[in-house]
Each structure stands twice: as structure tokens, then as C-alpha cells.
Amino acid sequence: MPFKRSPMRYAHIMGYTSVTYQDDGNCIISVGYDGDFRIWNGIGDDDPPTVCVGEHVWSALQYGDRVLVATDLNTVQAYKYPSLDKDGIEFRFTAFVTCMAKNKRFIAAGSEDATIKVLSVDDGEQFELENLEGPVLSMDASKQDLLAASIGDGKLHIWDMKTKELKKTIQDLPKVKSFERVLHFSSPTFEPKKGNLLAYPNGKEVILLNTTSWDVVKKFVNPKLSTTLTVCRFSPMGDYLAAGSESGDICIWDCETGKLVEGDKPYDANPITKLVWNPKNNGELALSDGNGQVGTVTDIFVEGGEDDAEGADIVAMAEKEDDDEDDDAFDDLFNAHLKPDERDSENDASGDDEGNENCIELEKLKSQVMGPTQKSDGAMSDAGFDDDDRGTVRSERLAVAKSYPQQHPFQPSSTPNSLEHCYLVYNHVGIVRRHATDKENSIEVEFHDSQQHHGIHLNNFLNHTMAGLSETVLAMACPNEDGNPSKIVCINQAAFGKREWTYTMPGCEEIIAVTASDKIVVVATDSRLLRVYTARGTQREVIAVAGPIVALAAYGDHFLVAYHSAPANEDQHISLMIVTCVNFKLRCREVRVPLTAGSEMQWVGYSDRGSPAVYDTAGMLNIYHATSNLWLPIYNAEYLQTKGASDHLFIIKVSESTQHVQLVLCRGSKYPLTTPKPIPMEVKFALPMCDLESEKECLEDDLVRSLYLKVNDADKLMKETAVKLFALACKNECEQRAKELVETIASSHLIPLVIKYASKIRRYHLADSLAPLLPTFQEQEVQEEKMEQESVRENAAIVNELQHINLEAITKKDTTPKIKPLPVGTKKPTNPFRKSTAAATDGISSPASSSGHTGANSSNPLEHLTGKAIGFSASRSSSPSVGSKLTSSSVDATGGQDENRPQNSGGGTSTPGMKFLPWFELNRDDLQRKHPEADEQQLIKIGMREFKAQQAKGVSSDAASSPADGGSAKRKLDASDAPESGVSKLAKFGFVKSG
């Protein structure tokens, strides 16, 4: 007869659930993610005693009159059983305890912080097993004082607890970073009688080892199993071995014969998290799954002959349980699984089924709720269901949508409020600590820059549990407690007079998140409302959000709102509202948050340049590029070499200008300790580029940073990196890749530099192919500039929001002028020594202050640079081209040479070292007249031939001078011209040898 499975019933909220038996086997004890401790008087108990012992409970171990409970307080708390009065603390860790094991002489506990502590029951000695490189997943202790523990790094370790010696290490098991995400526990189990066998699941099989030689004795396999096994356990007498799978299947083998015991199929496809046998050895085991449910398996035995003495006890016990009238609860529970003839015969034997209305109602309820799949295979066969029908019905049940919990609201850069000493906020401005003990209830504020603000110590009368901190504002919020409404209290450090203001939430609204910047304060309530205030306390807008709010962040006039945009499944579906406040006008943009599969949002905020950034529990940090409307991954926690498997990163600041992330490395825990004060560290942005060991890939990484991230001197870095990549491509004989790079960047500032380099290394064909790109890029940039100006005029606020421009940050951090060249021929040459009308009363004006061709006050901030300083030869031509623009400080208004340089009396001659680009711009008109049918590219080729011919023959530079040059005739000084200096007069008498 196959074993029977009870339907899984609700015990705790969704999450890791553990189950164990009372040492006498009369009750089942379960603990779960909701922090409840339940005692079940059989699986049919409808009202089990429940005690909340913590926020989360991970494991429980009962023996004698005591029970050990592992909670999220990082301790193993002992209680009296069953009264659950506290009886001391057995172990203390730096992270929560995940599992426990016990034999007659030792008690062991393993933690998320990759440590195991062992306590000797005889003498009370306690020692640690460290350096495990991962969280402890499952443990078991044998009669021979061996301790086996599966670790998250994919290894199974076995120690001798008497000698503290590591006996054996087994590798190649599934790896996991955190216990909260473990699916395959690889739970080891020792044979209970002698302890000379060790079993553990690996894949779809259970491996049995000899603890003396560590040889593989046997492998148990279920050929019908479709998913991998997660846990396994020996029966109390060691004659059976049970294992649970990822899809909820239970596999039971006879250890002596290796025969697989048949039984009922699972009703729900949830992974089995814990499996334990009844100490009575009555063929019963209890199990729990990852959906917060518990259940039992009964009638476990191997069918044999009448003379089978070994199985006779179990069969007799099963028959005794079937005949026992006191166990009607189990009979009623499994009544739906019996065949109709068996159910009728049992009802006739009892003689009171017709008068038992409760039994009839229970059957009706089961048939209505559970459906026909709750019947056994025999019943379904009698009803006309074949195997295909049963599979179809079961698949329909499995297709029912599961429920997944959505992430709860949280404060970025904070620690849980359940701690006595916690951080309400820890960011780049300062630290806000909350002390909630029996003797003290206060808030302490510490600023990193003590010269700007002094520290604050406040009595926490309102019991504030949330805070936001900026350079000028401290915002604190308290929830609804003891009939007191939720309030927001702000202290403005930069205000005169009264610095504090407060607001009370209307009705029953409760604050769930708060954030503050130097200009605004934003509060989120459980009514899915956002309340916006100014930094001085003026109420602004009240905004409705289209989903449950998760977190807030603020920066200047901007703030972020993370909220659930859809129900959660395996992933959290979170969207981000990017809101900009301009006066009393709001602009909003919504984007989806890219979270790693199966992870939750751990931190959200702004970089120092105003770009939104998100960090998830899987260790991935992404930054938002507003212009492209894309997320870029900039760091992964796995890149930190000093990080262990159980360590976590606590983000403090993301600096986009310096390309660094400031964080705290939490050893063996999720949050930093308040005492001693943690020491932050900085890590550099690490984009997940391929093959960063080579020079080419490193330059590509720098190019992407300069193009998409707001780094210091981004334009300069882009030019330098692009030229290096261009040179590297030319060196490797990849001219097409070099040209492609220039075309992809599409910068007119880059064209002269790469043409000069290509000509220098004698790649004239490449230089000729790049020259036509210059006017095209200039035209594109002019069009882009016009479109940008039009969009600014139409809606300046939304453009400011999209680009996240912060004027103060730009002024302080980035002083590089942003210059876009004008089209060729649009700027007339001017006299740099002419007085400007605006500066007529102040004396001689500088060249940078000279007016442009339109008479406006705008000027070129690079006019003081020479062409040689930028990379061109010091040409004395007067062309209005790009090359001559950059050397305008050495050219006068008529196109002549600089008056402070020595010159020949002939005047108007050009230097023999003139490059092709300036020469071509000077002679464009003549070439066009000579060859009117030639297009732009042909004209450039013709000019290149003439230029080379003139250089080869040593032709006088008079032919290269501009027709509008005016010869050597000198112009008389106008009344508005500046007085001639002595240096200028002496320079006229200098002589330069030509040729």
C-alpha cells in the first residue's frame, strides 16, 4: 500500500519555513518567516498555540523541557517548553542563525556570517568553526560526534567535534550567496543507530558515504523525478531514507534493498525546505515548503510477505492506527483519498455515519474546494479518469498563479528599526542615529563636515522612525502609535529665526517614507499619496501614486518615487517617477527599474551630478542616463575581491564626477554596526566590459565613461581617448575601424586631430577619407544646437529635468567650457587689439572681450590659445576655417601677420610648413572657379594634388595667400584702435628668413 500525503496547509507567510517534532513525537513544531512559533497537535489541529518570538524565525530545536529558537536578532534564544518563558541565550552571532543540530554531548548552530559555534553539554565549553566562505545551509550531528554542514560555497564539511578536526570536504554542490535565496539545501544526515553512514542530496540522487573510508556506498535515484532534490533525512531506526525535491515531491527508499516506496503525488509544486521523521518511528514524517505550508506523510512501509519479520512491526502499527477509533481526525482528513467501496465498508462498520452530519459537510467542503484531484489514483480510475486525465487535472492545478510578496517600503541608507541602536539615515552629508533602549530614547545627528554644522542631540519624544538629511534640512517622521497621528518634523539648519516646522497627517494617514534635499521635503503615506513641502515649510503639491510606494530620494529640485507598478512574481516590478519642481510647476517622467532576477531594491538615490542610481540585493548598481533614457550598470558587488559570500555592501554615496562609489563593507551581515563607527571605503566604477586586460578594451571603457557619465573634463577625456583608439587602430592596420570610430563619435573637434595624426604617419588615403566628414559634422552640430534651442524655448523645465542639470554642481565641479564650432565662413575676422565699445572707459580690452561679427558680447573663450598649443602648426593665414579660428589670436583683422612677431618686409608670405587644411580653406574659391564641375570630394582631391606639387617644387607661398589679402599695404590706425606698444614697434624691425 503506498504512503499517504496530507494536503499542505497554511502555517506561516510565504518564505522559509522550518518544522521539527517534539522529542516525544506527540506534537509538530513549526517556525516561519512571520516570526511565529506554532505547536501543532497533529496536522489536523485547527487552532495551534502561537507565540511571536521575533520578526523572522529561521530554526527551532526542542529537547527535554527546553526549546532553542533562532531569530533575526542574531542569537539563539532558549525558552522553557511549552510555556516559552525565556531561559537565556545559547549563542551570539553577527548575522542570523540558519540551522541547528544536537546529539547527546554537543549543540551546534550555523549562521549566515559563515561561522559555526559548538557548545559542549558536559562542561559548557564553546568553540567556533570559521573560514567557511559562505553561509551555513544545513547541519546534522552523529552519535560518533561528527558534525556535517553544507555551506553556500558549494562544499560539505565534516568535523570531529571532540578534536575540532576537519575530517572531510565534499565539493561540487550548488552554490548560493545568501540563505534567504537558497533553494538546494544539500542537507546532510547521519544514520541514527551507529552514525557510520552519511547521506546528502546532489542533483536528482542521494549519495550514501561511509564515514570511515568516505567511499560511496550507494546512490538512491528516482527515475520518475523531474526536478533536483533539496533535502534528505534518515528515519529514526535508519531503515528508510526520505528526500524532498524542488517541485514538492517526496521520495522514500528502503535503505537495505534500495527499493523505492510508492506514494501520493504532491498537490502543490513548492520546494521542500525541511523534512523530519516522527521520533516514535511510526512511519510518519513532517515537512515544510517555501510557501509557508506544512504537511505530513504517513503509512510509510515496503509491501512484503506475511513472514517478513522486519516489516511486521510497521505493518502492525499501521493497521493499529487504522483500527484505532481515537484517531478519527486522520481518517476524516484522508477520507477523500479512499475508494468508494472502502469508504462505504468503513462507514457501515462504524454504524453512525448517517447521523454524523459533520463528516458529510467536511466531505462536501473538500470536494468543493480541492476538486477531484484530491482523490487517490484508485478513486480516479473508478470514476473513469485515466493517467492522462490525472496529469491534465494536476497540471491545471499547478498552473494556478502563485502569490509572491511585494517588497515593503524602506528608507535608503538606513538599518532596521527593530535594533536598539540603528541608523535612520547614513549618507554623504552625515549620520542620524536612533537609540531606543530602556534607559534612553534619543536621536543623534552627526555631520561629516563639522565646520559647516555642529552635531545635534534630540530627545525622541514622538518616537521618530524615519529621517532624511541634506546639507540644510533634517526631516524626521513618526508613524501612528498609541492613538497619536503621524507627523513630519523638519529642522532647517540654514534658516534665520524659527528653524523648526511640523505638520500632522490628516485622518488615519501614516507616513511610510520621507526624504529631504536643500530645497524640498517629500513625504509618502500609506494612502499612496506624496506630500511635497519646501525646505522652509510651505506646503506644495499632493500627488497620487499609481501603486504601493517603496522608497523616496531627493536632490535639489528633483525627487524620485519608487513604487510597485505590477504584482510581484519571481521578480519585483518597480517603476521610478522622476519628478522636477520648477516654481509651482511639476514635470514627471516614469521609467522601469532594472532589478536582477529574483532580487529586491536595496538602495535608491542620486549621484553627485543628479543622475538616479539603484542598487539591488544581488549586488548590481545601475545609473540612469536621462538623455538616452537608458540604465547603465556601473558596479557589481562581486568585483570587490575582499567581499565574502556572506558580506553585503551598504551604499553611502555615488560620485559620478570622480567615478567612485562610497560604501561600507558589512562583514557577515546586511547592515553596518553603530558601535564601533564603520569606516567607509571607495571603489571605482567597474563597467562590465569584455576583456579589460588589453589596452584597446581599457580605452573603450574610458570612452564610454566620457560619453555617457558626467565625469570631470568629459570633453577632454573623450578627445584624448578617441585619438588613442584611432592611433591604436592605425597601428594594427585597421584603417576601417579607425574611420568607423570617428564616424561613430561624430565630433567636429576630433576631425582636425585625427587628420593631423593620419598625415603624420603617412596614411594619406585615410586622411583624405576623413576630410569630407568635417562639414557634415559641423552641419549636424548646428542643427542639433538649433533643435536644442527650440526645445528649450518651448519647454525649458522638462529639458532641465531630463538632463538633470544642477547649476551648483556644474559651477563647482566642471568648469570646462562647452564650445561648438560655427559653420565654415560664418565668422568674420576681427582685430583683437580693437577697443570694445563696452570697455571704452576702462582702457584697452583683452582679445577675449572683443565683439563678434554680430556685435554681441559673446566671445570665444579659446581665442587666447595658439594653434601650436592645440596641435596645429602656427599658420599665419587669415582663413575663417576651423583651423584658423583656433589661431585667431595670431591674426589681425585684415588677415596679416601678428604685429608682435618679426616679419619680412615683403609681407603676405605664408610659412612653408603650412598644413593642407588651412591651405585648402584659403584656396577653396580659386579651386572652385578653376573646376566648377567638381563636387566637394573631387575638389579636395584636386587641392591635395596641387598642395603636394607646390610643396615639392618649393613654390613661393605668395600663391597660397588669400586674394582678399590686400598685399603688403599697411592700414592707418583708426581713432578707435589701441595705442601701439613698444614691443609691437620693435617687432616690425625683425627679419625672418624665408624659404
UniProtKB/TrEMBL annotation:
<feature type="domain" description="WDHD1 first WD40">
    <location>
        <begin position="9"/>
        <end position="296"/>
    </location>
</feature>
<feature type="region of interest" description="Disordered">
    <location>
        <begin position="948"/>
        <end position="981"/>
    </location>
</feature>
<feature type="compositionally biased region" description="Polar residues">
    <location>
        <begin position="843"/>
        <end position="861"/>
    </location>
</feature>
<dbReference type="InterPro" id="IPR022100">
    <property type="entry name" value="WDHD1/CFT4_beta-prop_2nd"/>
</dbReference>
<keyword id="KW-0853">WD repeat</keyword>
<dbReference type="Pfam" id="PF20946">
    <property type="entry name" value="Ctf4_C"/>
</dbReference>
<feature type="compositionally biased region" description="Low complexity">
    <location>
        <begin position="956"/>
        <end position="967"/>
    </location>
</feature>
<keyword id="KW-0539">Nucleus</keyword>
<dbReference type="InterPro" id="IPR057646">
    <property type="entry name" value="WD40_WDHD1_1st"/>
</dbReference>
<dbReference type="InterPro" id="IPR048591">
    <property type="entry name" value="WDHD1/CFT4_hel"/>
</dbReference>
<dbReference type="GO" id="GO:0000278">
    <property type="term" value="P:mitotic cell cycle"/>
</dbReference>
<feature type="region of interest" description="Disordered">
    <location>
        <begin position="337"/>
        <end position="356"/>
    </location>
</feature>
<feature type="compositionally biased region" description="Acidic residues">
    <location>
        <begin position="343"/>
        <end position="356"/>
    </location>
</feature>
<feature type="region of interest" description="Disordered">
    <location>
        <begin position="814"/>
        <end position="916"/>
    </location>
</feature>
<protein>
    <recommendedName>
        <fullName>Minichromosome loss protein Mcl1 middle region domain-containing protein</fullName>
    </recommendedName>
</protein>
<dbReference type="Pfam" id="PF12341">
    <property type="entry name" value="Mcl1_mid"/>
</dbReference>
<dbReference type="GO" id="GO:0043596">
    <property type="term" value="C:nuclear replication fork"/>
</dbReference>
<dbReference type="GO" id="GO:0006261">
    <property type="term" value="P:DNA-templated DNA replication"/>
</dbReference>
<dbReference type="GO" id="GO:0003682">
    <property type="term" value="F:chromatin binding"/>
</dbReference>
<dbReference type="Pfam" id="PF24817">
    <property type="entry name" value="WD40_WDHD1_1st"/>
</dbReference>
<feature type="compositionally biased region" description="Low complexity">
    <location>
        <begin position="873"/>
        <end position="884"/>
    </location>
</feature>
<dbReference type="InterPro" id="IPR001680">
    <property type="entry name" value="WD40_rpt"/>
</dbReference>
<dbReference type="InterPro" id="IPR036322">
    <property type="entry name" value="WD40_repeat_dom_sf"/>
</dbReference>
<feature type="region of interest" description="Disordered">
    <location>
        <begin position="364"/>
        <end position="390"/>
    </location>
</feature>
<feature type="domain" description="WDHD1/CFT4 second beta-propeller">
    <location>
        <begin position="409"/>
        <end position="689"/>
    </location>
</feature>
<keyword id="KW-0677">Repeat</keyword>
<dbReference type="GO" id="GO:0006281">
    <property type="term" value="P:DNA repair"/>
</dbReference>
<dbReference type="InterPro" id="IPR015943">
    <property type="entry name" value="WD40/YVTN_repeat-like_dom_sf"/>
</dbReference>
<feature type="domain" description="WDHD1/CFT4 helical bundle">
    <location>
        <begin position="711"/>
        <end position="771"/>
    </location>
</feature>
